[in-house]
Amino acid sequence: MFKTLAERLRNSDIDFWLLVPLMVNTVLVQIVTAIVRITTSYRAVELDLSIVWLGLIAAAFALLPVLIAVQTGRFIDRGHDALTIWIGSALFTLGCAGFVIWRSPEALLISTTVMGAGHLMLMASQQMLCVRAAGPRSMESIFGNYMVAGAIGQGIGPYVVGWMGGSATVPPTQPLFVLALIVAVISLGCSLTMRPHRDRPKPLADKELVPVSALLRIPGLLPVVIAGVVMIAASDIIVIYVPLLGAERTIDVHDIGLLLTVRAASSMTARLFYARMVATAGHWPLMIASTFACAAAFGALAAPLSLPWMYVIMIVMGFSFGLATTLSITIIVDMTTAGARGTANSLRIMGNRLGQFVLPFGAGLVAAVTGLSGLLLVMSGAILAAAVAVHVKRPVKPPEQ
User: Fold this and answer.
1) Which of 199, 263, 307, 351 is deepest in the core (most CB within 10 A)?
2) How many H-runs (helices) and E-runs (strands) does the chain carry?
3) What pLDDT is attached to residue 206?
4) DSSP letters of 81-124?
């Protein structure tokens, strides 16, 4: 029986020996990221930091990634996808250690920056390892499962924070940071099991790499990148500011954790049915519809809703996030050649991090003037503009059709 199973795995369209540790690593990284980002907001409350300080700390998560994103993509395109995930895991764990060791505003800023650099390398390498693990018939399925794994981690993280925080308005932050460090160390060990490709192609020379300017001229690619930037930044802002919204509306930590868990569970549900929905509706109509839905959800959350309605809004928001963020990856992979995918994907992630740098900091300034409701309305408008851009600039004949 075991011999037959091994033969099936070898003959499969999917490289399960790579896929399984990759999915485990993805879940663990997202658990850590969710715990740390939420706990950082609560530690800022403990340290009595202003909302502008919190915006600056949130923006630091994207500061170094903006500078190294394209170089990371080029490094991956030269055949170093496994090495990139090793380095990224090490930096990610180092950043988590900083939260445990030091307790100050400066420590939050520096640790967030280091963790953000590791996170970028992890995301870029994980997504290109998905391409390596997939065969020609399983690309949509692999990316759907990858995003499901991410959603599982994004759901477990907030649930852990809510469970440990209970009915307190501010949970104990040090135990949460210690737990995040432990899980980060486990994820590092998992990443080290992923080996370089035995039959990897000869690394591309610099002159063979596709210029960034040529990538940006691909019809429809830039609007998708921009939409992904806005969506990821919006997702980040929800994780950062919903705890503050809870404090403002006297919602306890347990319910805030559940709200974020429901959002993640809804994203996971969307990704479970992602391949089937793409086969039915196509990439571009789903991208446009999900982005419009997310804009509507942000606008609704700005209203002083009761807690049950907030759960409904989080379900809609999570489902639209789940579709749009997955589509922003697969559309770019589908539109680019194999030798440019690492660069194109890292360019997308660089845009995401740039959005995560500019928008949270800008959001902090907006919230300081207008309050959290004003911030949510501004984000709703930004997402709506991105949806319109994708609709107007999409290719007449999409590559997948």
Assistant:
1) 263
2) 15, 0
3) 47
4) HHHHHHHHHHHHHHHHHHHHH--SHHHHHHHHHHHHHHHHHHHH
Q: Which of 322, 264, 262, 324 is nearest to 291 (CA)?
A: 324
The count of C-alpha atoms lying within 13 angstroms of the C-alpha of 122, restricted to the half-sphere facing its C-beta, is 31
CATH number, residue 266: 1.20.1250.20
Task: Give the per-residue pLDDT at 214.
Answer: 65
Residues 196, 296: Cα–Cα separation, whole Å: 43
Token pair, residue 321, equals: 């996030």
What is the chain's alpha carbon radius of gyration, rounded to the nearest angstrom?
20
Distance CA 126, CA 123 (A): 5
The predicted model scores a pTM of: 0.69
The 10 Å Cβ neighbour count of residue 346 is 31
Residue 23 belongs to some domain of the structure: yes
On whether residue 5 sits in a domain, the answer given is no
- pLDDT score recorded for residue 169: 67
Residue 346, amino acid: S
- Distance, CA of 89 to CA of 115 (rounded, Å): 9
User: Contact, 169 vs 67, CB < 8 A?
Assistant: no
pLDDT at 212: 63
DSSP state of 203: P
Answer for the pair 161, 176: CB distance below 8 angstroms, yes or no. yes
Residue 216 confidence (pLDDT): 64
| Number of domains forming the structure of the chain | 1
> What's the pLDDT score for residue 135?
65
Q: Supply 347's token pair.
A: 């360019």
Q: Which of 99, 24, 9 has its CA nearest to residue 61?
A: 99
| Average pLDDT for runs of 10 along the chain of length 401 | 46 71 92 88 81 77 76 79 90 93 86 90 86 70 80 82 74 88 94 74 51 65 81 80 79 82 84 81 86 91 85 92 84 68 70 70 72 82 88 63 40
**6 within domain boundaries:** no
Parent domain of 177: 11-393
And the tokens for 208?
């063979």
Does the residue 85 lie in any domain?
Answer: yes
Nearest to 349, CA basis, from 30, 168, 119, 85: 119
What whole-number distance in Å separates Cα of residue 32 and Cα of residue 290?
27
Tell me if residue 197 falls in helix, strand or coil: coil
